[in-house]
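Recall the central idea of this unit: under ordinary conditions, the amino acid sequence of a chain determines the structure it adopts. In this exercise we apply that idea directly, starting from the sequence alone.
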Amino acid sequence: MAVLATIMVAVFAGLTGGYAVMSTFRQDLRATQILTQKAEAVRLCTWSQLNSLPQTFTDYYYTLGTTNTPANTVYSGTISLTQPNSLPAAYRSQVKLVTVSLVWTNNFGGKPVPHNRQVQTLVAYYGMVNYIYGTGFKQQ
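Accordingly, the structure predicted from this sequence is:
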């Protein structure tokens, strides 16, 4: 009976740990999804729309549930625009480096664990937006 009890405790501990790790992986995957969504939305903005982007945003793990859902993970993000110094001087005024950062906290083993992710992309004055809206599209 003692061996059987030990085996059962080990099995349940393994299942609990496995579910905690899967939850963390799902939250990481949701963070990647949010970062990709924001970066692609920025790349489809016109040059004049880049300056009017919100600098901060909030998203949720479960998008239909808001802060009323106690187990819902809150993702807080920022979008920053800078000019890349690594480019030649002739191109710097026509290219912006967009950095999208995301921060969230989850509980692993009953302890809060902070996480952060970041993605960067370049946006050019005559960039992807011209292909989406047509070659005759005039930038503002």
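The two ends are 78 Å apart (CA to CA).
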